[in-house]
Write a structure and sequence with these properties.
Number of strands: 5
Radius of gyration: 41 Å
Strand order of the largest sheet: 3-5-4
Strand content: 5-15%
Largest sheet: 3 strands, antiparallel
CATH topology of one domain: Arc Repressor Mutant, subunit A
Shape: rod-shaped
Order of helices and strands: HHHHHHHEEHHEHHEEH
Number of helices: 12
Structural class: mainly alpha
CATH architecture of one domain: Orthogonal Bundle
CATH superfamily of one domain: Winged helix-like DNA-binding domain superfamily/Winged helix DNA-binding domain
């Protein structure tokens, strides 16, 4: 039992000795900094030109100024604290970072259309509903990467929307319903645009008549009609051996709006 106590005391004495040595080392380091800093911080006064007045100035002397005299007590204390404890600068760094983030946040909260290229892309979409990214690039002359980025920002801001129709992604100004988007995407295809015109003028037209009118094969006419039927733009009605096609009520409503000249929804 006594041996355990003795070893514990020795450990305590040894720990206290290490602690005192560490304190002594820190004290000696500070003393060296304070005592030897005058030589490192000397100020040399150069002789002034003869044309300058020298009243009250000893231009040939040089004198040593200790560090604690070169700075105010608060400045000297701040410098010493930052040298020996850099972590004290962390709150200042946090405040500066918060200010920078606040500034950046203020800049990013501006109107998305203040950017010139983004505004051009938005105007292109407004004037060409259902336009694709590659078509936007060609019309505006803006490269694909920049166009992709600004399209993302416009969608993020809720100014435009996109619809994927058979692998073709068309972009629209906000305000278009699903039927309008679908029809506008189809109208960007020349063949389907002609089919829509025939269905508007001749409801109940057959597949063969459509093929003859726009001068395409019956198989090609059948393929386009299947696409329009799958998207709910047309309805079919069997009449004996013939199948007659007509626009749905929703499609007719969209074309009626376009006919009245609603430029906000013009395709």
């Amino acid at each position: 039992m006594s041996s355990i106590t003795t070893e514990g005391c020795r450990a305590s004495v040894g720990g206290w000795t290490v602690h005192r040595a560490a304190l002594l080392l820190i004290f000696l380091t500070l003393a060296l900094l304070l005592l030897w800093s005058p030589a490192a911080a000397k100020i040399i006064v150069e002789p002034a030109p003869p044309e300058l007045p020298t009243d009250g100035i000893n231009v040939d002397d040089e004198r040593f100024v200790p560090v604690w005299q070169a700075y105010s007590p608060l400045e000297f204390l701040t410098i010493m604290l930052l040298i020996h404890c850099p972590l004290l600068a962390v709150p200042f760094e946090i405040i500066c970072s918060a200010g920078i983030l606040a500034f950046l946040g203020h800049r990013t909260s501006r109107n998305p259309l203040d950017h010139k290229k983004r505004s051009r892309i938005y105007a292109c979409i407004r004037d060409h509903p259902g336009i694709t990214q590659s078509e936007i690039t060609r019309v505006t002359g803006i490269n694909r990467g920049t166009t992709r980025y600004h399209l993302f920002r416009l969608r993020e801001a809720g100014l435009v929307s996109a619809v994927n129709q058979g692998g073709r992604v068309g972009y629209f100004q906000s305000g278009y319903d699903a039927t309008s988007k679908t029809i506008c995407c189809h109208l960007r295809n020349d063949t389907r645009r002609e089919i829509f015109a025939l269905l508007l003028d001749h409801p109940g037209i057959t597949q063969s008549e459509i093929a003859n009118e726009i001068e395409i094969s019956r198989s090609a006419a059948a393929w386009h009609l299947q696409r329009l039927d799958a998207d709910g733009c047309i309805a079919s009605d069997r009449d004996g051996r013939a199948v007659r096609y007509a626009l749905t009520d929703d499609a007719l409503e969209v074309f009626e709006v376009l006919k009245q000249g609603d430029h906000g929804r013009a395709c």
